[in-house]
Amino acid sequence: MNHYHTIKKAIELISTDRADDYTFLNVAQSLKISPSHLRKIFIEWTGISPKQFDRYLTLTKAKNFLSQ
Question: Is-above-0.70 flag for pTM?
Answer without folding.
Answer: yes
